[in-house]
Amino acid sequence: MSCWLRCWALFGCVAGAQAASGYLAAVTEAVTRAEAGQWDTASQAFGQASLLDPDDPLAYCGQGLTLLAARQVDTAAACFRRADETDRYDALAFCGLGLCYFEVGNLSSAESYFKRAAALDALLAPPAFYRGVMALCRGQVDEAGELFGRAAELGTDQVLLDHLTALRLLASGRWQAATEALRQLKPHVATSVPGLPAPLPLKLEGEPGKQVVLLVPERDPLSDRVAPRTAVEVVAPQPVRVGPLTVETPLPGTTVSGRVTIRVSLMQARSYKYVTILVDNKTKGITNREPYYVVWDTTSGADGPHEIVVRATGGIELEGRLTVNVQNRPQTTVTQPYDPAAYRTAARRIAALLQHASPPLSVERLLLTAYQQQDPEQALDLMERLYAKDPTRTELVDPLLALYRTMGLSYPVDRLPEPVRGVAGAGRVALTFDDGPRPEYTEPILKLLRQHKARGTFLVTGRMSEKYPELVRAIAADGHEIGSHTYNHLHLDGLTRDEIAYEMIKTKVVLDDIVGVSSRLMRPPGGHYNPKVREVLADLGYFPVFWTVNCASFSRLSAAEASAAISGKTHDGGILLLHNGADNTLSILPALLETLSRRGLRFVALSDLLRAPTESALMARPEFGPLPPAELVPYAGVE
């Protein structure tokens, strides 16, 4: 071999080693995104990784996984077939193909692929798990138990297996035992192990107490004729374009060496004075005439990524950016394109993601069927938690609302109270605190209320309550009332019916888990409210509370002036709107508490203020208590 050919061979080997090293890092990053549930960005990352090593299957298997998460089974199968063609790690590709056939109900093909995967790699969990599910569907309960035991040894999430054990009891005719097992499992508790976001597609056929059959519903047959390369084809790098500015060379993401020409084209060049070209924030050239280009000598810099910035200056400045990889210096030749241990770890993580992370749909149906008649409260709790976990499950909204109505928890929409003040006659006012909780505000507010022996009502957001559950518990421990200010603090009048329901249900589940109970009181963020919001709240058994005085309206005054002005507007039965956040609440609250106390006003929970002193306060869920009196002033716009 000539000296030139030997050098070229060495360079090709080195380039392959560097590409493989970057490839494995790219695959690992994509897997991390998939484990975090970022399926779209993970799919893109796997696609980009496949460019770095088109002959390795991991990126194709990863992309197939993300397509399964998006329910694009045919396209996912094409990715797994492309992975199989590389002939490096067939077991993972066979596992993916088996799952594709399982998803469409072709169990014979699925079984074949899962057996081939297990024969090649006995340490993969998904083949044992899905073969156990298929045995369960065939009524082979003992075989299913053995396979589930094997899947557990290989790392399948135990919570998921426990649900399937309950279904084994059901398939063997032990209906009551299955129902009791599911009660003990508390199936609304989501598993913490990453995996496919959709529940196992199992279907129950039969009636409670009679013979029940488990099935995998058949869908459109999976075509073997899908062009395997089409699905994983990634668009080749394109020139960077920003309006009339185009960086023609080099292309983004490419590897360059030696003297590199950075060439720019500019339409309507007369509208621009000059073009500046920078590499790593250092100017390489400024030119005011075509052709716009500079020659960059890469040999003086370090190998690795470098940023190129091109600016066209004129009436409007345009800027294009791209990154290229410089590779000038030969590296030590390696015999393998990847680290075996790191490769196996990435493959195992992809395999773990090829299992469903949610219990089977049939478990939900079983519970809802069993509970709806004998234990509707359990059924309601399950449905609320399913919807809170996955807002795309909008099919749960109508059954949820029907269950609220059946249990007498809804309000007639034409009688829904919308109070802006409470019941006068007993020298009472209500302090209400929106937003939060936040440590820097909640703790000082609680301290002030404690000093004045005042009760308040905290209308908290679900998101912040999840972040600071200890503050929610502190509010409850001090005897204050807790209501809902929605989960994301969005303007409800701009949301759909299902989105409004999600905001309320998600917050209820969060508060129930933190303090065990939540109030039927809520306040729409910003007071944004319309008939659609009113209807959903009535169906869910909530009613909106507004305010008599908005204390934030006096934020331009000093604390003393604001307290005096608010006190002058506050009368018996008044509802004061304050905030558990960054406004004037903390500055005015001490003086306000002093002033109103001297006037003989008592600070009570909002639910107390909405009832006459001789009546019981509104109860928390699920014993909602009676409706507020009809004479409460209806909402008619507030300041």
Give your account of this protein's structure.
45% of the residues lie in helices and 15% in strands. The chain is an alpha/beta fold. It has three domains: 12-215, Alpha Horseshoe (Serine Threonine Protein Phosphatase 5, Tetratricopeptide repeat); 258-326, Immunoglobulins (Immunoglobulin-like), CATH 2.60.40.10; 413-609, TIM Barrel (Alpha-Beta Barrel). The strands form five sheets. Strands 12, 13, 14, 17, 18 and 19 form a six-stranded parallel β-sheet that branches. The chain has a five-stranded mixed β-sheet with strand order 5-11-10-7-8, with no helix packed on it. The protein has a four-stranded antiparallel β-sheet with strand order 3-4-6-9, with no helix packed on it. The N and C termini lie far apart (88 Å). Residues 1-20, 187-191, 226-234, 331-335 and 616-639 have low confidence and may be disordered.
Determine the mean pLDDT: 83
Largest β sheet strand count, sense and barrel closure: 6 strands, parallel
C-alpha geometry: flat
User: What's the CATH first level of the largest domain?
Assistant: Mainly Alpha
**Overall number of structural domains:** 3
CATH fold title of the largest domain: Serine Threonine Protein Phosphatase 5, Tetratricopeptide repeat
> How many H/I helices?
22
The CATH homology group name of the largest domain = Tetratricopeptide repeat domain
Low-confidence stretches: 1-20, 187-191, 226-234, 331-335, 616-639
Helicity range: 40-55%
Structural class: alpha/beta
Number-wise, the strands total: 19
Question: What is the percentage of strand-forming residues?
Answer: 5-15%
Based on CA atoms alone, the radius of gyration comes out at 32 Å
- Cα distance, first to last residue? 88 Å
